[in-house]
Design goal:
The protein is α+β, with helices and mostly antiparallel strands and 424 residues long. It folds into 3 domains: 244 residues, Rossmann fold, CATH 3.40.50; 68 residues, Immunoglobulins (Immunoglobulin-like, Sandwich); 79 residues, Immunoglobulin-like. 28% of the residues lie in helices and 30% in strands. The protein is built from 12 helices and 18 strands. The protein is elongated and about 85 Å long.
Length: 424
């Protein structure tokens, strides 16, 4: 027998775009797809307020019709329109509150296929988006309406365990992230039963329950400790601090665990040396872009480059691998024996001063400059421009933080690279 789930009567339908926030720092765009568990107490705005208090910025949109299932979202024009807008950093999927706890056969038919379909739609329109499954909690005293059909639903612990298991399977299947709100709630229920996480219906979250969810999502999105953020939605100081501490212990202290199904970015390479020439084999995983820094002021963005050194010595080669906003770095030292090959790059740069730079750096080359690009130490391009075929140019460095940068200059004689130090 297929058992029933009860739709929330809070809203027939709701879809809202949260206004932009204004604080400087990391800026993330998040789409919440769910129902009244997300809508009650305005979870997206609460996470946004935490972001502001932490010096960051969160732009959110929500599609949260009351009692909606993921199957219904798959056919909801408002939901599909928001997904198709693209440019989301995270898309949160929250199923109807009971459905994932039902018998396995029903979950296989009613939950997993639509979680997969929405995840596929998200990835189709948002190359860099991470899907996050909102692991919701068991009802305060179990699901009495369905207890007779499936005994695990008769208690909070049984229902909660089913929900945690099924959301974990969904995340694993779709290589997604988990926001373990149910784990935070269980920790609070066990250690601090005086904190009321439920609304009067013993299903929806109270203000304290939503705040526990907000702390979990804040930590998942920004990878920061929620206990250090000073935003109180209106709780007593004791409950407020206890919830933050629980979320830190469950979520922030185990971020790698909740991201364990998401394909991790890993930089790596091997190499073979023939005289002064080194051939690199890129062994990185899940990268989309690559930047090689060869330790002699030269760089390359191909996947498997070959580099010839003009001088002997020991060089630290750095590979920076990027996937959307994520990056990882791998380093290795390479020894080059004596070589008489002239340094073409040094011959090309007739003037390159001052280095270290303070307010500016002046460049003069033998060829005619057509374009220049400046990269920071993690391979992010921070400055670029066309030079209109001139022999010289001056670049302002007064707004750059101290550190090592890499300049790439394209001329009619070739492309040349030099490292630039900014030091005040």
């Amino acid at each position: 027998m297929r058992i029933k789930f009860l739709y929330s009567v809070l809203l027939a339908s709701f879809c809202v775009l949260t206004p932009s926030l204004t604080r400087a720092g990391d800026t993330l765009r998040v789409l919440f797809i769910g129902n009244s568990y997300t809508f009650v107490n305005d979870l997206p705005s609460m996470v946004g307020n935490m972001a502001v208090a932490g010096g960051d910025k969160l732009i959110t949109a929500s599609s949260t019709p009351g009692g909606a299932t993921l199957e219904q979202h798959c056919n909801n024009p408002a939901t599909l329109g928001l997904i198709n807008q693209g440019n989301w950093d995270y898309v949160v999927l929250q199923e109807q509150s009971q459905l994932p706890s039902f018998p396995e056969g029903q979950v296989q038919f009613d939950f997993y296929p639509f979680a997969k379909k929405l995840d596929s739609l998200v990835k189709l329109k948002n190359t860099c988006a991470k899907t996050v499954f909102y692991m919701t909690w068991g009802r305060k005293n179990g699901d009495a309406a369905n207890c007779g059909f499936f005994p695990p639903l008769c208690t909070y612990l049984g229902m909660d365990s089913m929900l945690q298991l099924r959301y974990t399977i969904a995340a694993d299947t779709n290589h997604a992230v988990i926001s373990p709100v149910a784990r935070v709630w269980r920790k609070l229920r066990n250690a601090n039963p005086g904190i009321e996480l439920y609304d009067a219906d013993e299903s929806h979250p109270s203000l304290a329950g939503t705040y526990a969810a907000a702390c979990s999502f804040y930590s998942i999105f920004f990878k920061k400790n929620p206990a250090l953020v000073n935003f109180n939605p209106g709780l007593g100081s004791s409950d407020y601090n206890t919830i933050k501490t629980a979320a830190k212990a469950v979520v922030y202290d185990s971020l790698a665990y909740w991201y364990r199904f998401y394909p991790s970015l890993k930089a790596g390479f091997t190499y073979t040396t023939t005289g002064a020439s080194v051939t690199f084999a890129n062994t990185s995983k899940n990268g989309l872009k690559y930047l090689w820094l060869f330790g002699d002021g030269q760089l390359d963005s191909t996947k498997n480059p070959t580099h010839t050194y003009k001088k002997s010595g020991s060089f630290q080669v750095k590979l920076i691998v990027q996937k959307c906003a994520d990056n990882d770095t791998f380093k290795a030292n390479i020894n080059i024996a004596s070589t008489a090959i002239p340094d073409v790059a040094d011959q090309e740069f007739l003037e390159f001063s001052p280095n270290p730079a303070r307010q500016f750096i002046h460049i003069k080359v033998a060829g005619l400059i057509s374009r220049f690009e400046l990269y920071d130490g993690v391979g992010k391009r921070i400055l670029q421009g066309n030079a209109n075929r001139t022999h010289s140019l001056s670049l302002s460095t007064e707004k750059l933080p101290d550190g090592l940068y890499y300049l790439r200059v394209q001329t009619d004689r070739g492309v040349f690279n030099r490292s630039v130090s900014v030091l005040r």
